[in-house]
Amino acid sequence: MLKKEWLHGVCFGLIFLFASQLGAIPLQRIEEQSFGSTPAGEEVQLYTLRNAHGMVARVIGYGATITELRVPDRDGRFANVVMGAESLDTYLKGFSAAASVMGRVANRIANARFTLDGREFRVTANAGQHQLHGGRNGFARKVWRGEVLPAIPNATAVRFSLRSPDGDEGFPGTLNVTVTYTLNDDNELRIDYTATTDKPTPVNFTNHAYFNLAGEGDVWDHQVWIDADRITAADAELIPTGEYAPVTGTPLDFSAPTAIGARIEALTSTKGYDHNYVLRNGGQSFACAAWCYEPRSGRLMHVYTDQPGMQLYTGKRYFRNGKPVAATPDQKHNTVCFETQHFPDAVNHPNFPSVILRPGQTFRRATSYRFSVANALPAVP
Q: Contact, 140 vs 155, CB < 8 A?
């Protein structure tokens, strides 16, 4: 997100776009190259996806992570809008702003335990006494196998596969997972998840992408709309109580477009947004859950999903070039996450949408980020 990187991205995007349109070079939609190896000798591949308009998405096999997402502003200038790092070593050291896949169960499991079919399971605690995002070595810290999918009209895709063994981080059953990233010519990056199991087990995936639609600076001026009028109420440790709480009249209300920074200082207990929204659609169909608009660049991102919930999270640390740096209090929130998912601690709340996957079933969920530009706030759907 540095100025030099931005200038390089603009020049490359414009040259590539013009040359492709003039027929000087064919559109090379996908490239594969090495991103390095883990200390265990596992090779990590980097896949670069391009569309006909110069948009670029880069993803690596470590954590099935988006490392870069370059999109144009209203003047056609490209910038990376996802926080990422340039080296595998940064990710291996635990880069906390990685746009990785979270699992086997994203978000929190209270007291790192749950009961399933009458049997109690204890999973790895990595957030005090609770589990967060799958444990110490969750899916974000595993090497996935990548595969370029056959060409399809106006799009390109790469599929990552992972086999999570029985007992992995304490979870029952061998789980076979795929995550497919598809970039199309409508400037849309879509993520499709599937999973099967040989024993009943909880499953909840999300991608923890940290967005900044300006490419740099804070996100206080980003305008957000969310199709929800409730959240899952939570205690001081962000563990759901099992109840729903209305957002009307609170700093959590984004039913009308509101700047992230307009009320963020009122959230003293969470030091920013870290709340699970109960989407009105309830995961019944693939629908628009939220949008985010950055007025200076004109970049607009719509979030579509068939998940029932979405965690709105504003990064509590300031990152530059993949590394946390010292910052004044008003600079800390330079990223925002839209984590589409099932509800936190759903495995311990029968009244929440179920996260239990059983043998013979196939878990299927999807999320897409659709980018465009606008000169003013879009209409609320």
A: no
Alpha-carbon distance 98 to 317, whole Å? 13
pLDDT band with cut points at 50, 70 and 90 for residue 381: confident
* Tokens coding 313: 């999270």
Query: Is 378 domain-assigned?
Result: no
Residue range of the domain that includes 9: 3-373
| Cα gap 8→78, rounded to integer Å | 9
List, for residues 143-177, the tens digit of each pLDDT value. 999 999 998 999 999 999 999 999 999 999 999 99
Catalytically active residues, by annotation: 208, 339
Any domain includes 379 = no
Structure tokens at 122: 């204890």
Distances, alpha carbon 195 to alpha carbons 136, 205, 206, 243, 329, in Å:
21, 10, 13, 29, 41
Strands 131-132 and 119-122: unpaired
CA distance 125 to 162: 22
- Let me know if residue 316 belongs to a domain: yes
Number of compact structural domains in the chain = 1
Sorted by sequence, the CB contacts under 8 Å of residue 203 that are 6+ apart come out as: 103, 104, 105, 175, 195, 197, 355, 356, 357, 363
Helix (H) / strand (E) containing 6: helix 3-21
CATH of the domain at 81: 2.70.98.10
What is the Rg, in whole angstroms, of the alpha carbon atoms belonging to the chain? 20
348-360: pLDDT as tens digits: 999 999 999 999 9
Q: Collect all residues with Cβ–Cβ distance below 8 Å to 131 and sequence separation of at least 6.
A: 105, 108, 109, 112, 123, 124, 125, 169
| pTM of the predicted structure, to 2 decimals | 0.91
Query: Which residues make Cβ contacts (< 8 Å) with residue 217, sequence separation at least 6?
Result: 334
Residue 33, judged by CB atoms within 10 A of its CB (0-12, 13-18, 19+), counts as exposed
Q: Does the residue 381 lie in any domain?
A: no
